[in-house]
Amino acid sequence: MKSEKPTLRTDDLLKRGFIHACEWRIIENRLKQSARLPDHPGVYAFCIDGVAQYIGLASKSLARRIYGYEKPGSTQRTNQRLNELLLAQAKSGISVQIVVASPPDFEWNGWSISGAEGLEAALIRDYSLPWNVRGSTAKVSAPRRNTPSPKRPTEGFNTNRHPGKYGPLRSFLEDCRQDRISMTFRQIEDLVGKLPKSASLYQAWWGNHEGNSQAKAWMGARYLVEANPAGRSVIFRKFEY
């Protein structure tokens, strides 16, 4: 039986040679880096609340690689997926830090070995990184428009498959199989019971990162959430690995 991989702490990355480069922000309604990264190759990590969510490789230029997440091309599925995740975090008031490292290359028995490629592979192999996805078929589904909102969420659904307070929400989202689901807080409370006051007061409560039990529910069902606490409503949007 395989043991669960540990999380990768930002502090550990910094202690071992990574440096804090910048963070992701929303500027003029677009995803932007707070500072430009260097033009040399390296490894980068996107971190939330002191935990790495994603590890990536820039084989030529960190600056150009990270810029790809700001303006993903129509065929760049990984860039599209990460752009959506990063936008959702920034809109929810969650800070996503970017830390980088540029390990030196070395030679082994006459072969030139990339230190950056080796480091990226080792980190992905050894640690739990929620946003890293194997394979080249990862994609973000385009939301369907005019999807009707459920009036009675629990009606006709088996909502008892997953344990915990927010397990019924995950079960409901899995059964809906819609790309876009609008729900009021009241409809969510019909599933999970009364929401905490922080859900109405703080955008961060709706952050799309799996450090929160509530986020594990919708992200486990392959959804990201856009919340409007003042209006007591949310929109869940489907994404696919």
From TrEMBL:
It comes from the Bacteria. InterPro entries: DUF7662, EndoII-like_GIY-YIG, Host_DNA_Degrad_Endo. Residues 138-163 are annotated as: Disordered. Residues 166-238 form the DUF7662 domain. Residues 138-149 have a biased composition (Polar residues). Gene3D superfamilies: 3.40.1440.40. This is DUF7662 domain-containing protein. It comes from Pontixanthobacter luteolus. The lineage of its organism: Bacteria, Pseudomonadati, Pseudomonadota, Alphaproteobacteria, Sphingomonadales.
